[in-house]
């Protein structure tokens, strides 16, 4: 049985979910935020130590400003209003990605939730925001170089935003596309990949449970036999 230390999810399909109901795309994002809560609780209760969720990519700035603003505002609301989710389930909040372009209000809310949850030890919930894997690797290499450290696999890993959470064991993408969209490329070098057509707002802990059951029984070889 494989242990699942690090689960990563590309939460895709919010826009199509809304469109199929003749709603506006942003309604899909709103519904998607509720699913985050269910999935985080499932992970906290099922012994998963690290859950990384792709919430906003470095490429998502290409969307219309109104949608970008909505997403960042939804993120702010989630962080401010969901404190109880973190406290009641002993979830510690982290982020990966370059936070520098965000408003001070958002940056302060992020810092505040990180501080408030720093002693929680059941689950690390890591939100990938303004995250791009290539950007993260470049920043990691520059950080290592600036401290005079030799570049090798270990030193790059140690300087990634995700250092400490371990490589991804299982990567799930909802919404039917079969691509990684610049998410955790380095950390997923040996991840098991699961693609489901379910749109993120329809994704349930029951489906997650099935995907994890399959993961647990997979023979992971890491190049050996
Ligand atoms: C994923 O849903 C959420 C984000 C990328 C923020 P999408 O908004 O990409 O939904 P689709 O892929 O257009 O259906
Ligand atoms: C990936 O979804 C980013 C997030 C889920 C945050 P996208 O919808 O942005 O990816 P592409 O454009 O289909 O590759
Ligand atoms: Mg999408």
TrEMBL record:
<feature type="binding site">
    <location>
        <position position="12"/>
    </location>
    <ligand>
        <name>Mg(2+)</name>
    </ligand>
</feature>
<feature type="active site" description="Proton acceptor">
    <location>
        <position position="60"/>
    </location>
</feature>
<feature type="binding site">
    <location>
        <begin position="179"/>
        <end position="181"/>
    </location>
    <ligand>
        <name>substrate</name>
    </ligand>
</feature>
<dbReference type="GO" id="GO:0000287">
    <property type="term" value="F:magnesium ion binding"/>
</dbReference>
<feature type="binding site">
    <location>
        <position position="25"/>
    </location>
    <ligand>
        <name>substrate</name>
    </ligand>
</feature>
<dbReference type="InterPro" id="IPR001441">
    <property type="entry name" value="UPP_synth-like"/>
</dbReference>
<comment type="function">
    <text>Catalyzes the condensation of isopentenyl diphosphate (IPP) with allylic pyrophosphates generating different type of terpenoids.</text>
</comment>
<dbReference type="GO" id="GO:0005829">
    <property type="term" value="C:cytosol"/>
</dbReference>
<feature type="active site">
    <location>
        <position position="12"/>
    </location>
</feature>
<feature type="binding site">
    <location>
        <position position="29"/>
    </location>
    <ligand>
        <name>substrate</name>
    </ligand>
</feature>
<comment type="subunit">
    <text>Homodimer.</text>
</comment>
<feature type="binding site">
    <location>
        <position position="63"/>
    </location>
    <ligand>
        <name>substrate</name>
    </ligand>
</feature>
<dbReference type="GO" id="GO:0016094">
    <property type="term" value="P:polyprenol biosynthetic process"/>
</dbReference>
<dbReference type="Pfam" id="PF01255">
    <property type="entry name" value="Prenyltransf"/>
</dbReference>
<dbReference type="GO" id="GO:0008834">
    <property type="term" value="F:ditrans,polycis-undecaprenyl-diphosphate synthase [(2E,6E)-farnesyl-diphosphate specific] activity"/>
</dbReference>
<feature type="binding site">
    <location>
        <position position="61"/>
    </location>
    <ligand>
        <name>substrate</name>
    </ligand>
</feature>
<keyword id="KW-0808">Transferase</keyword>
<feature type="binding site">
    <location>
        <begin position="13"/>
        <end position="16"/>
    </location>
    <ligand>
        <name>substrate</name>
    </ligand>
</feature>
<protein>
    <recommendedName>
        <fullName>Isoprenyl transferase</fullName>
        <ecNumber>2.5.1.-</ecNumber>
    </recommendedName>
</protein>
<feature type="binding site">
    <location>
        <position position="17"/>
    </location>
    <ligand>
        <name>substrate</name>
    </ligand>
</feature>
<comment type="similarity">
    <text>Belongs to the UPP synthase family.</text>
</comment>
<feature type="binding site">
    <location>
        <begin position="57"/>
        <end position="59"/>
    </location>
    <ligand>
        <name>substrate</name>
    </ligand>
</feature>
<keyword id="KW-0479">Metal-binding</keyword>
<feature type="binding site">
    <location>
        <position position="173"/>
    </location>
    <ligand>
        <name>substrate</name>
    </ligand>
</feature>
<dbReference type="InterPro" id="IPR036424">
    <property type="entry name" value="UPP_synth-like_sf"/>
</dbReference>
<keyword id="KW-0460">Magnesium</keyword>
<dbReference type="InterPro" id="IPR018520">
    <property type="entry name" value="UPP_synth-like_CS"/>
</dbReference>
<feature type="binding site">
    <location>
        <position position="192"/>
    </location>
    <ligand>
        <name>Mg(2+)</name>
    </ligand>
</feature>
């Amino acid at each position: 049985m494989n242990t699942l230390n690090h689960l990563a999810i590309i939460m895709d399909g919010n826009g199509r979910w809304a469109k199929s109901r003749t709603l506006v795309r942003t309604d899909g994002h709103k519904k998607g935020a509720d699913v985050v809560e269910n999935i985080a609780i499932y992970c906290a209760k099922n012994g998963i130590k690290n859950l990384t969720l792709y919430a906003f990519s470095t490429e998502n700035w290409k969307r219309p400003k109104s949608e970008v603003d909505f997403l960042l505002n939804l993120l702010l609301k989630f962080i401010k209003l969901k404190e109880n989710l973190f406290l009641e389930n002993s979830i510690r909040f982290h982020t990966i990605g370059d936070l520098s372009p965000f408003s001070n209000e958002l940056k302060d809310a992020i810092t505040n939730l990180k501080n408030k949850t720093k002693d929680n030890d059941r689950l690390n919930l890591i939100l990938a925001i303004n995250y791009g894997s290539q950007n993260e690797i470049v920043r990691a290499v520059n950080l290592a170089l600036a401290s005079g450290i030799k570049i090798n696999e270990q030193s790059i890993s140690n300087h990634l935003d995700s250092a400490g959470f371990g490589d991804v064991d299982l990567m799930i993408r909802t919404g039917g596309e079969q691509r990684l969209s610049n998410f955790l490329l380095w950390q997923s070098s040996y991840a098991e990949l699961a693609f489901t057509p379910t749109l993120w707002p329809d994704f349930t802990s029951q489906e997650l449970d099935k995907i994890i059951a399959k993961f647990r029984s997979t023979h992971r070889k890491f190049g050996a036999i």
